[in-house]
């Protein structure tokens, strides 16, 4: 964070992030939308360094609080966008317009995102522990059969 | 950490900060009139005990302008006390009939009815007409 | 924090509040009428003496006097504190003292009627 | 979505630099539908990032944004700008020390809340297999209203007795204790009485009734306190005048 001479504001970056996630990482998602989101978020994360702290006190400094929160939110946002992009299927609230079917063989697994040296997170998976509720067709349309 | 919480002083002017506090103070001031009127009546009892002449002194005192003004004020404050007391009665005595509570208006209404009947009875028995 | 003995003070206050709410306005009206020259029959000396002579009336009068003075005293004490008077114990002893004195006096006079 | 210019006069206080709080005026253009919280957020994002205040849900359920608006305790997220004309004065919640700008020190309330044990102490503890603690709608209605409290402390700011007697346990704490005392499943009233029936408990209340008026969730702490007083009085006279009644 900058001492003085900021090129960015916490509120400005946050608004852009919210707009991007709202638009591309809602319930209905698409490949190119998520790709655009990942690019924007990567850019926002690099611009985050240009933020300046206006409130330099140590008592209930909500300016600092929001700046720190913004940093974490950006990381979470990119993890969500990247793992959504990698998950080529539709499941629950993650509905890919380009991959409408649910694919249990490949994607009945939790997505994990690791931040390492590289700027963008590495997406990995881990197995799901099936207990009481077995995976099945969740058809709430109450229509046929 | 350099915390230094600032405590704002509580001054008596809170009474004028909102009409509800003024109404509260007026209700509380009714006790001055109810108390002083009752003390006046205790003096009346003393006069009654001392006989016919003393009692008529008491009646004459009642007729003085100061006494009439005091009585009018006392009546107003005492009535205000009654109204506020009966309006708040449902808060202190909620009545649940089956699943729901009886409406506040019914409970305070009942109190007002008792007040009216009692007052009429006293006026009648005391031969005020 | 132990449970307080405030009910000793608050009990009669609540009863007094109810009693004064019910009877005080009409009684003030009676004495007001007397002040305006239309004295109710009850306030004539003989009627009043006869009335106050019965022990039931004495009991009632003493009760009303006590409850009125006590509830007024309780309220006055809190009002003083509200207005910023901090000597609460002194105020309390004065107001409740007057209430008790007034009650004792009324009982005394009632016994003499 | 029409816009209009408004002025907010906010009480600022920075413990590191100021000796006492002072007002600062902000002139902003706002949307017709905005609440005071939106105006504060707008100021913090575009005008003065150093302005500190608490908020979270923006829909009057979390109880964080209680503050004095034109001298009245209000939830900032529920104080619609269209209801105000002229300069809107925003101050921290009354009767609490000011930590920073509109942020108050709420330790006193939190400590009192803990003391009244506002949680279920089952009358007869049942094993898990014995199933739920059942309750009829009528039993639910007996305490439901008091369970709506969101701990926003507006009632503490409105109550003059809490201002005059800091040790007074306060409206919300007693209302929440009453919520559990009235719960058919609960058996903890005896454990709560030493707190709410103490001298600094319900007895400090002189029934001003301001707490119930300002409560954003329409809880009636004043009513709860009177009921606590009456039951505690009955308890006291039963205990002292009729000891044989002791169960």
Q: Considering DSSP H and I runs of 4 or more, what fraction of the residues of chain D is helical?
A: 25-40%
Instruction: Output the helix-strand order of chain D.
Output: EEHEEEEEHHHHHHHH
Main β-sheet, spatial strand arrangement of chain D: 2-1-5-3-4
How many helices of chain C? The count is: 4
Structural features, described:
The complex is a heterotetramer of chains A (145), B (129), C (113) and D (247). Chain A is α+β, with helices and mostly antiparallel strands. Chain A is built from 4 helices and 4 strands. Chain A has helices at 10-24, 31-47, 62-86, 104-107, and strands spanning 28-29, 95-96, 109-114, 122-127. The longest helix of chain A has 25 residues, at 62-86. The radius of gyration of chain A is 19 Å and the shape is elongated. The model of chain A has no long low-confidence stretch (mean pLDDT 91). Chain B is mostly helical and 129 residues long. Chain B contains 4 helices and 2 strands. Chain B has helices at 19-50, 52-63, 65-92, 104-125, and strands spanning 96-97, 100-101. The model of chain B has no long low-confidence stretch (mean pLDDT 94). Chain C has helices spanning 7-35, 45-53, 55-82, 88-112. Chain C is elongated, with a radius of gyration of 17 Å. The N and C termini of chain C lie far apart (48 Å). The model of chain C has no long low-confidence stretch (mean pLDDT 94). The chains are: A alpha+beta (145), B mainly alpha (129), C mainly alpha (113), D alpha+beta (247). Chains in contact: A-B, A-D, B-C, B-D, C-D. At the B-D interface, helix 1, helix 3 and strand 2 of B face helix 3, helix 5, helix 8 and helix 9 of D.
């Amino acid at each position: 964070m900058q001492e003085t001479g900021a090129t960015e504001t916490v509120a400005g970056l946050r608004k852009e992030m919210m707009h991007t996630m709202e638009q591309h990482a809602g319930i209905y998602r698409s490949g190119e939308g998520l790709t655009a989101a990942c690019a924007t978020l990567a850019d926002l994360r690099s611009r985050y360094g240009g933020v300046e702290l206006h409130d330099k006190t140590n008592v209930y400094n909500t300016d600092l609080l929001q700046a720190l929160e913004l940093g974490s939110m950006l990381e979470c946002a990119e993890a969500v966008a990247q793992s959504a992009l990698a998950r080529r299927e539709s499941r629950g609230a993650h509905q890919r317009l380009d991959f409408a079917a649910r694919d249990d063989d490949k994607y009945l697994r939790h997505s994990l995102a690791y931040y390492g040296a590289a700027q963008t997170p590495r997406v990995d998976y881990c197995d799901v522990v099936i207990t009481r509720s077995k995976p099945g067709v969740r058809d709430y349309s109450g229509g046929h059969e | 950490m350099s915390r230094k919480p600032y405590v704002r002083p509580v001054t008596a002017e809170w009474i004028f900060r909102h009409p509800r506090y003024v109404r509260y103070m007026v209700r509380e001031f009714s006790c001055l009139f109810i108390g002083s009127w009752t003390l006046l009546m205790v003096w009346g009892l003393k006069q009654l005990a001392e006989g016919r002449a003393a009692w008529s002194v008491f009646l004459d005192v009642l007729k003085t302008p100061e006494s009439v003004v005091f009585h009018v004020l006392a009546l107003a404050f005492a009535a205000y006390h009654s109204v506020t007391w009966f309006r708040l009665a449902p808060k202190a005595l909620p009545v649940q009939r089956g699943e729901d509570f009886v409406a506040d208006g019914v409970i305070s209404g009942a109190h007002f009815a008792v007040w009216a009947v009692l007052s009429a009875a006293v006026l009648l028995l005391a031969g005020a007409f | 924090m132990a449970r307080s003995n405030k009910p000793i003070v608050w009990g009669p206050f609540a009863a007094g509040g109810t009693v004064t709410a019910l009877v005080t306005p009409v009684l003030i009206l009676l004495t007001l009428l007397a002040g305006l020259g239309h004295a109710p029959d009850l306030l004539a000396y003989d009627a009043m003496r006869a009335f106050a002579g019965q022990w039931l009336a004495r009991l009632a009068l003493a009760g009303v006097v006590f409850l009125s003075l006590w509830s007024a005293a309780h309220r006055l004490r809190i009002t003083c504190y509200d207005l910023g008077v901090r000597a609460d114990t002194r105020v309390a002893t004065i107001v409740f003292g007057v209430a008790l004195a007034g009650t004792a006096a009324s009982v005394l006079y009632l016994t003499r009627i | 979505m029409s816009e209009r210019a408004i002025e907010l006069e906010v009480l600022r206080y920075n413990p590191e630099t100021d000796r006492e709080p002072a007002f600062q005026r902000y002139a902003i253009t706002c949307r017709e539908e905005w609440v005071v919280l939106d105006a504060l957020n707008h100021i913090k994002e575009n005008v003065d990032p150093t302005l500190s205040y608490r908020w979270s849900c923006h829909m009057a359920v979390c109880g964080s944004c209680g503050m004095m608006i034109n001298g009245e305790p209000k939830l900032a997220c529920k104080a619609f700008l269209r209801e105000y004309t002229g300069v809107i004065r925003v101050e921290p919640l009354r009767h609490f020390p000011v930590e920073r700008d509109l942020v108050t020190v709420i330790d006193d309330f939190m400590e009192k809340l803990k003391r009244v044990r506002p949680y279920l102490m089952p009358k007869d503890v049942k094993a898990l297999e014995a199933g739920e603690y059942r309750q009829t709608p009528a039993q639910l209605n007996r305490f439901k209203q008091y369970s709506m409290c969101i701990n926003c402390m507006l009632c503490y700011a409105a109550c003059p007795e809490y201002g005059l007697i800091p040790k007074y346990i306060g409206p919300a704490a007693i209302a929440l204790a009453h919520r559990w005392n009235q719960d058919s499943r609960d058996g903890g009233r005896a454990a709560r009485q030493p707190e709410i029936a103490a001298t600094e408990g319900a007895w400090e209340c002189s029934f001003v009734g301001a707490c119930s008026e300002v409560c954003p969730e329409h809880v009636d702490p004043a009513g709860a306190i009177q009921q606590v007083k009456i039951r505690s009085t009955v308890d006291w006279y039963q205990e002292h005048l009729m000891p044989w009644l002791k169960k």
